[in-house]
Write a structure and sequence with these properties.
73% of the residues lie in helices and 1% in strands. Strands 1-2 form a two-stranded antiparallel ribbon.
Length: 510
C-alpha cells in the first residue's frame, strides 16, 4: 500500500491529505449556488399570498378569495394558473439539467454555475419588472434554467473537491445555502408585504438577483476540480490542483485512481446510453428514487406554500409569514446539525432517524387538523391547536433538514463513476424538478380533496422511503468518490449486478 493508503472497512481507500482553507472557501463559494434555489422556494409562496400581486396578475383568484364566504378551510386558493406560475420554473429546470450535463462535462463545473447565475439574474430582472402574466412566465422559465444549471453542477463540484473524509460536511453546505435562501426570502416577504402602494411583490421578486450575482461572480474565481481537469486532458494542472486542495505532496495514489476513472470516462462515447448498463443499476436507481422520495416527504408543500398553508389553517397574513420565517430558522439550524453529523454517524442513520421523526410529526399534524376541521373543512382553530401545529411542523422541518434535505443532494452526487457522473446528476436534478412540479401543481387540489388526509398520504410515502433506505442504501461515508463501486460490489443486493472485471480502480490496493 504505497503512500500510506489504507483500506477502510467498507472497501474504499483512505488517501493522505487534510481539509485545507482553500478547499473550504472554494466549496462555500460553490455552495452559494443553493441560494438561488432556496430564495425562489421561499419567495414564491409569500408573493402569491400578497393581495397586490394577485389583483394585478390573477384577479379571478383575488376576487374568488374575497368573495368566497365559505368557511371551508381546505379548498382555498385553488387556481391551476396560480400554481403554474410557481411550478413552471421546475419544468424549465428539468430540461436545463440535461443541457447542463454536457456543458459540465466538456467545459467544467464552474462554467455551468456561471451560466446558471447569469440566467437566473436575467429572470429575476424580468419578474421584478413584469407587466403581465406572460412576462412572469418568461422570467420563471429563465429562473428555472438557472436553477437547473446550478443544481446539476454544484453538488458534483463539492463532492469532487472535498476530501473523502469530509465530503458529506462540505457537500451539505449546498443544502445549508438552500435553507438560508428560504429564510432570507421569508424575511423579505414579511418586510415587503408592509410596503404601501402594492409594490412589495416587485421588490421580493427583483431581489432574487442578489443570490444570482453571488454565484455568477463567485464562480469566476473558482478553481476546476482535479476530476474535471483530468477528464479534459489537463493532467499537470490536475496534479497541481490536487496538491493544493489536499495540502500534501503525497497525492499519487489518488491521482492514479482519478486517471483510471478518466480513462474509463473517455471510453464512454454515449453516457446516456451507457448509464442503462447493468453495472450502473445501483447508482441509477438511487438517482431516480432518492429525489422522487425527497419530494414525497411533503417538505415542499410546507416550504413552497408555508404562507398559504398557515393562512389556510386559520392564521392571519402577517402571522403566516412570521410562521414561515420561524420554520426557515429551524431549517437552517437543523441543516447545521447534518453538516456536523453526516461524516461521523453516516448517511443511513440520518436518513432513518429523520424518516421516523417526519412520520410521527405528519401523523400528529394530520390528526390535529382533523380534530379542528374534520371532513367538512369548517371550524375555528384554537390558540392551543395552532401552536401545536406550528411546533410539530417545526420538528418535522428539523427532521427533514438533517436527513432527506441535504442527503437528497449529497448521496446521488457521490455515487456515480466519472464516466457517467454528469449524466447521473442530470437525472437526479430532472427527477427532482419533475416531481417538484407535479407536487406543486397538484398540492392545492389534493388539499381540497384529501383534506387532512394529505398529511397521512405523505406519511405513507415516508414509511416506504425509510424502508427502502434500510434495505438498499449502503453506507457511503469516508469512501473516496472514485472507489464507490467497491461499496456497491459488497452490497447484498446490488453486488450481483457488478462483475469483477467491472472494477478498475483500486486493484493494486484491494
Amino acid at each position: 500500500m504505497a503512500g500510506g493508503v489504507m483500506i477502510t472497512q467498507v472497501g474504499g481507500k483512505d488517501y493522505p491529505g487534510r481539509m485545507t482553507v482553500f478547499v473550504v472557501f472554494a466549496c462555500i463559494i460553490a455552495a452559494s449556488g443553493g441560494l438561488i434555489f432556496g430564495y425562489d422556494i421561499g419567495i414564491s409562496g409569500g408573493v402569491t399570498s400578497m393581495d397586490s400581486f394577485l389583483l394585478k396578475f390573477f384577479p379571478s383568484v383575488y376576487h374568488k378569495e374575497k368573495e368566497d364566504m365559505s368557511t371551508n378551510q381546505y379548498c382555498k386558493f385553488d387556481s391551476q394558473l396560480l400554481t403554474l406560475f410557481t411550478s413552471s420554473l421546475y419544468l424549465a429546470g428539468l430540461v436545463a439539467s440535461f443541457v447542463a450535463s454536457d456543458i459540465t462535462r466538456v467545459f467544467g463545473r464552474k462554467w455551468s454555475m456561471f451560466g446558471g447565475g447569469v440566467t437566473f439574474l436575467i429572470g429575476a430582472a424580468i419578474n421584478g419588472a413584469a407587466k403581465d402574466v406572460a412576462m412572469l412566465i418568461v422570467g420563471r422559465i429563465l429562473l428555472g434554467i438557472g436553477v437547473g444549471f446550478a443544481n446539476q453542477s454544484v453538488p458534483v463540484y463539492l463532492s469532487e473537491m472535498a476530501p473523502h473524509r469530509n465530503r458529506g460536511t462540505l457537500n451539505n453546505c449546498f443544502q445549508l445555502m438552500i435553507t438560508i435562501g428560504i429564510f432570507c426570502a421569508n424575511f423579505v416577504n414579511y418586510r415587503t408585504s408592509k410596503i404601501k402602494g402594492g409594490l412589495g411583490w416587485r421588490v421580493s421578486l427583483g431581489l432574487a438577483g442578489v443570490p444570482a450575482l453571488i454565484i455568477a461572480l463567485g464562480s469566476l474565481f473558482l478553481p476546476d476540480t482535479p476530476n474535471s481537469l483530468i477528464e479534459r486532458g489537463k493532467t499537470e494542472e490536475a496534479k497541481q490542483m490536487l496538491v493544493k486542495i489536499r495540502g500534501t505532496e503525497d497525492i499519487n495514489d489518488e491521482y492514479e485512481d482519478l486517471v483510471v476513472a478518466s480513462e474509463d470516462s473517455k471510453s464512454i462515447k454515449h453516457p446516456w446510453r451507457n448509464i442503462l448498463q447493468k453495472k450502473y443499476r445501483a447508482p441509477l436507481t438511487m438517482a431516480i428514487l432518492i429525489p422522487f422520495f425527497q419530494q414525497l416527504t411533503g417538505i415542499n408543500v410546507i416550504m413552497f406554500y408555508a404562507p398559504v398553508l398557515f393562512k389556510t389553517i386559520g392564521f392571519g397574513d402577517n402571522a403566516s409569514l412570521v410562521s414561515a420565517t420561524i420554520t426557515g430558522g429551524i431549517n437552517i439550524l437543523a441543516t447545521v446539525v447534518a453538516i456536523i453529523a453526516v461524516d461521523k454517524v453516516g448517511r443511513r442513520i440520518l436518513f432513518l432517524q429523520g424518516g421516523a421523526q417526519m412520520l410521527i410529526c405528519q401523523l400528529i399534524v394530520g390528526s390535529l387538523i382533523y380534530k379542528v376541521f374534520g371532513t367538512t373543512g369548517t371550524g375555528t382553530i384554537s390558540d392551543t391547536n395552532a401552536y401545536l401545529i406550528v411546533i410539530f411542523v417545526c420538528i418535522y422541518v428539523a427532521g427533514f433538514a438533517w436527513s432527506w434535505g441535504p442527503l437528497g443532494w449529497l448521496v446521488p452526487s457521490e455515487i456515480f463513476p466519472l464516466e457517467i457522473r454528469s449524466a447521473g446528476q442530470s437525472i437526479n436534478v430532472s427527477v427532482n424538478m419533475l416531481f417538484t412540479f407535479i407536487i406543486g401543481q397538484a398540492f392545492l387540489t389534493m388539499l381540497c380533496h384529501l383534506k387532512f388526509g394529505l398529511f397521512f398520504f405523505f406519511a405513507g410515502w415516508v414509511i416506504i422511503m425509510t424502508t427502502f433506505i434500510y434495505f438498499f442504501l449502503p453506507e457511503t461515508k469516508n469512501v473516496p468518490i472514485e472507489e464507490m463501486v467497491l461499496v456497491w460490489k459488497q452490497h447484498w443486493f446490488w453486488g450481483k449486478f457488478i462483475n469483477d472485471d467491472d472494477i478498475h480502480v483500486g486493484r493494486n490496493h484491494v
